[in-house]
Design a protein that fits this description.
Residues 3-110 form the DUF22 domain. This protein is mostly beta strands. The protein is built from no helices and 12 strands.
Length: 141
């Protein structure tokens, strides 16, 4: 099994951390029934056209054994959500997870305000075709 380097920022301190984990790829079956969740800004952020910045969002829970896909339809007049994330240590799919920020790409000048709807995610339950080996920390870097 390959050893890979996982790099993330500590949720509380913002300090850059890295660890080597032993992990593997695995397959899953995706359900045809899913759900939508709104991504709502949790801070005011000013943008100029073309800027790409992180925006804190209200905590968005994700159920275990589900995948999340960004809805490609633009939901805010100033731009769109380019990526989704959670500050802190990566969370395995076998556990409940959450999103707490997005990367936003501005198409126009303006300000995202706390409480603005800035995007939507599609959440689909998955079933593992075979149980994957849970990633195991080998060492910190």
């Amino acid at each position: 099994m390959p050893e890979v380097r996982i790099v993330y920022r500590d949720e509380k301190t913002g300090e850059l951390k890295a660890e080597i984990v032993d992990t593997e790829d695995y397959e899953f079956t995706i359900a045809t029934r899913g759900s939508w969740k709104m991504l709502i800004a949790d801070e005011d952020v000013e943008f100029k056209a073309g800027e790409v910045k992180p925006v804190r969002i209200r905590r968005t829970p994700l159920p275990r054994e589900s995948i999340v896909l960004r809805c490609p339809v633009t939901r805010h007049a100033f731009g769109y959500v380019a990526s989704l994330g959670r500050r802190g240590e990566p969370q395995p799919i076998e556990e409940d997870r959450e999103l707490n920020y997005v990367i936003f790409k501005a198409l126009d000048n303006g300000t995202i305000r706390k409480g603005d709807l800035i995007g939507v995610v599609n959440i689909f339950p998955v079933m593992m075709v075979r149980r994957a080996k849970k990633p195991k920390k080998v060492r910190e870097e």
